[in-house]
Specification:
The protein contains ten helices and twelve strands. The N and C termini lie far apart (51 Å). The protein is elongated. By secondary structure, it is an alpha/beta fold.
Length: 336
């Protein structure tokens, strides 16, 4: 398994010079939230601040800062690992992007766009209107900084902390739909795990998804972190039933979904209530078929896309629930 932190480390090792492009503040409707960032080198980028002309402007300015002769002179004078904290910024004309670099074709900056630059830091204050070819209607302030060793370490540490708190998605079954769902969630901010009883079914999984081979997949449920989403779609209906029954016992699960038809769900209900000591309340938490039935398309990538959206919605709702409960308790305490 290759984690997103490993991808960040690999990117930072791929070149000598980088610029950090970060959304410093937002007003109104914007493509990304405050704190969203990307890294820029001469030949590549890592992450995104939302795309569009705003991102092109930021990349172009970052590469001008990286490769301008003035910056190189200043970098030689700057102490190792120290970023400029100066607030006074003098406007200057950045050097052209060097041969082999990136030069964005930009429209007019438009009225209200402000760019301030010092030797190691630049601020872009951009209205997202028709002047730059975007119609979000908000305003974004983007901070661009040159990355030194200290900042690089801070970025890795922040990524490690974020990755440690990612919600988990457990996919039981590595068949056609399981493969498609694993590929889909590999693109999402989650920790994906595929559990299988067949070694060959785990071949070809995305490198950012964890795989586990076990003869008793239902036992994995018991050790899953709180807030995990469980998607059950094995090759065996009886095995599906065992796994789902175990998952429904976890009242801290964010999502329990099973692939199948209405007939399969009805058969499971009968078995669950009579033979597995399940309750109607527990059964009511089961989502089946996964992905819903509004779209009549049973191709694995379509089912995976629908299920991934469903799972992500459940994870966000589950994550927001503790905050809502805490606010409610605080309100009751104030009222009391």
């Amino acid at each position: 398994m290759k984690s997103k932190v490993q991808s960040l480390r690999a990117f930072l090792a791929s070149a000598d010079r980088f610029a950090l492009v970060e959304v410093a503040s937002t007003k109104g409707s914007t493509p990304r939230e405050k704190g969203a960032f990307m890294l820029v080198s001469q030949a590549a980028t890592f992450g995104t601040i939302g795309g569009g002309q705003l991102e092109y402007m930021a990349i172009d300015k970052a590469r001008q800062m990286l490769f301008s002769p003035l910056e190189g002179e200043m970098a030689a004078k700057r102490p190792e690992g120290v970023l400029s904290g100066g607030t006074a910024r003098a406007s200057r004309t950045a050097a052209a992007t060097p041969p082999g670099g990136f030069a964005a074709t930009l429209p007019s900056r438009g009225r209200g766009t402000r760019i301030e630059v010092d030797e190691v830091c630049a601020t872009l204050d951009v209205p997202l209107g028709p002047e730059i070819g975007q119609c979000c209607g908000g305003r974004v302030e983007v901070l661009i900084r040159l990355v030194d060793a200290t900042l690089a370490q801070e970025l890795v540490a922040a990524a490690e902390a974020e990755e440690a708190h990612l919600p988990h998605v457990y996919i039981f079954g590595g068949g056609h739909v399981g493969q498609a769902l694993a590929s889909t969630i590999a693109l999402l901010p989650v920790h994906g795990v595929v559990i299988e009883t067949r070694a060959e079914a785990l071949e070809g999984m995305p490198e950012t998804v964890e795989t586990r081979l076990t003869p008793m997949p239902e036992a994995v449920i018991r050790k899953a972190p709180a807030g995990t989403a469980f998607a059950i779609l094995t090759h065996d209906h009886a095995l599906d039933f065992l796994i789902v029954a175990e998952a429904l016992k976890r009242d801290d699960a964010a999502y329990v979904g099973m692939i199948g038809s209405k007939t399969k769900k009805a058969t499971f209900r009968n078995w669950f209530l009579k033979s597995a000591e399940g309750t109607e309340a527990e059964f009511a938490r089961l989502v089946s078929p996964i992905g819903g039935d509004a779209v009549k398309d049973k191709r694995p990538p379509v089912i995976a896309a629908l299920a991934a959206a469903e799972i992500m919605t459940a994870l966000v709702a589950h994550g927001a629930a503790p905050a809502v409960s805490q606010q409610a308790r605080q309100g009751q305490e104030v009222a009391g």
